[in-house]
UniProtKB/TrEMBL annotation:
Keywords recorded for this protein, A-Z: Elongation factor, Mitochondrion, Protein biosynthesis, Signal
GO molecular function: translation elongation factor activity
Xref: NCBIfam families: tsf
GO terms under biological process: mitochondrial translational elongation
CDD domains: UBA_EF-Ts (cd14275)
Protein family: Belongs to the EF-Ts family.
Source species of the chain: Brassica campestris (Field mustard)
Translation elongation factor EFTs/EF1B dimerisation domain ranges (all copies): 142-356
Name of the protein this chain belongs to: Elongation factor Ts, mitochondrial
InterPro entries attached to this UniProt entry: EF-Ts_dimer_sf, Transl_elong_EFTs/EF1B, Transl_elong_EFTs/EF1B_dimer, Transl_elong_Ts_CS, UBA-like_sf
Name of encoding gene: EFTS
SUPFAM superfamilies, A to Z: Elongation factor Ts (EF-Ts), dimerisation domain (SSF54713), UBA-like (SSF46934)
Protein purpose: Associates with the EF-Tu.GDP complex and induces the exchange of GDP to GTP. It remains bound to the aminoacyl-tRNA.EF-Tu.GTP complex up to the GTP hydrolysis stage on the ribosome.
Cleaved signal peptide residues: 1-28
Cellular component per GO, a single term: mitochondrion
């Protein structure tokens, strides 16, 4: 009786060992097949016998997921590549890669979708920092203001690249419904549906201005918005001169001064005129004039109320502060006229500063720009 029980137990143990052996063999064949597939995709991972035994404790789906995951070194490489492509936080990069089974192209698309959702949620936050971008051709100057929440983002090369690209695109705007001479202010609606061809490692391809701003907002993790822009046309005979204050690179700054100088006749000494124009543009940034001339200052209701309360001496000082042509520095124009042998006058000027009037209603914001 005892020997019969021992025989039965030995038979049971033999069968149990045989079953485990067959299971281990089948799992090993599955792992080898998966490894061959992973070799073809560049994510080969050798598993030890111990790892195979651990895998046997999981269900087939979880085991297959583990088998198909790239090696740790490959994972780090993919995270690094996607991080370089998108500048997204490492946590989000890894989450997207895991979600997309370590497919870097699919993960990049997933990150873009996540970023747009995040950008939409942050669109109501105040964006008072940013950059002014200036672009110029033979006929006009374009200035655009691109805002963000922090100075840190304003210094980012992706943000600055977008601002410059938008300013260059604004130069090409030909709006027949808004013909202009002098200064033409415009809002986001004029540019947001226009096409941009971007060529930056992290933002590239053809897209609309609106989508480009949203994509950069997603990358930066802040509210980024295109607030306003200005076009300033050149006189038929004359020059346009621009000065940018606090400029991290050509075409960018926090304060812009632009001056249009008009010359009588076909004067060819444009270099001297351009030089003086640049000096006056710098003066506009520093002095903050509100009007081009005394007459324009007198014609505004606000200044008229102030005038009525002033004695003559204070009145003269007031006009010197707010009217560009009443300021002593503008004697440069008279000297320039003598130098070039033609009458030179300031036709227009424009002063724009990042974030000015940001707490006021957008509809009430007025650019400081005047024409003769």
């Amino acid at each position: 009786m005892a020997s019969s029980k021992v025989s039965s137990m030995l038979l049971f143990l033999f069968l149990l060992v045989l079953v485990f052996h067959q299971m281990d063999k089948a799992l090993g064949e599955q792992i080898q097949l998966s490894n061959r597939k992973l070799k073809e995709t560049g994510h080969h991972q050798q598993l030890t016998a111990g790892q195979r035994r651990v895998l046997a404790r999981f269900d087939h789906k979880r085991a297959a997921d583990w088998i198909q995951s790239p090696a740790v070194s490959d994972q780090m490489s993919l995270i690094k590549q996607l991080r370089q492509r998108t500048s997204a936080p490492i946590k989000d990069v890894k989450a997207s890669l895991v979600e997309c089974n370590w497919d870097i192209e699919a993960a990049q698309k997933d990150l873009r979708k996540r970023g747009k959702v995040l950008a939409s949620k942050k669109s109501s936050r105040t964006a008072a920092e940013g950059m002014l971008a200036v672009a110029q051709n033979d006929g006009k100057v374009a200035v655009i203001e691109l805002n963000c929440e922090t100075d840190f983002v304003a210094r980012n090369d992706i943000f600055q690249y977008l601002a410059l690209a938008m300013a260059k695109r604004a130069l090409l705007v030909e709006d027949s419904s808004h013909p202009f001479s002098g200064v033409f202010p415009f809002g986001p609606e004029l540019l947001e549906e226009l096409k941009l061809n971007l060529d930056h490692p992290k933002v590239n391809g053809e897209t609309t201005v609106s989508n480009a701003v949203t994509e950069v907002a997603a990358i930066m993790g802040e509210n980024v918005r295109f607030r306003r822009g200005f076009l300033l046309s050149k006189p038929s005979a004359g020059v346009l001169s621009a000065y940018l204050h606090t400029s991290p690179q050509t075409g960018l700054g926090r304060i812009a001064g632009i001056v249009s100088l008009e010359v009588d006749g076909d004067n060819t000494q444009l270099e001297a005129i351009q030089r003086v124009g640049s000096e006056i543009a710098m003066h506009v940034v520093a002095a903050k004039p509100l009007f081009l001339s005394k007459d324009l200052a007198e014609s505004t209701g606000k200044s008229q109320m102030a005038v009525e309360k002033m004695v003559e001496g204070r009145l003269r000082k007031y006009y010197e502060e707010v009217a560009l042509m009443e300021q002593k520095f503008i004697t440069l124009v008279d000297n320039l006229s003598k130098e070039v042998g033609s009458t030179v006058k300031v036709a227009n000027f424009l002063r724009v500063e990042v974030g000015e009037g940001i707490d006021r209603l957008e509809a009430s914001d007025e650019p400081v720009a005047q024409s003769a």
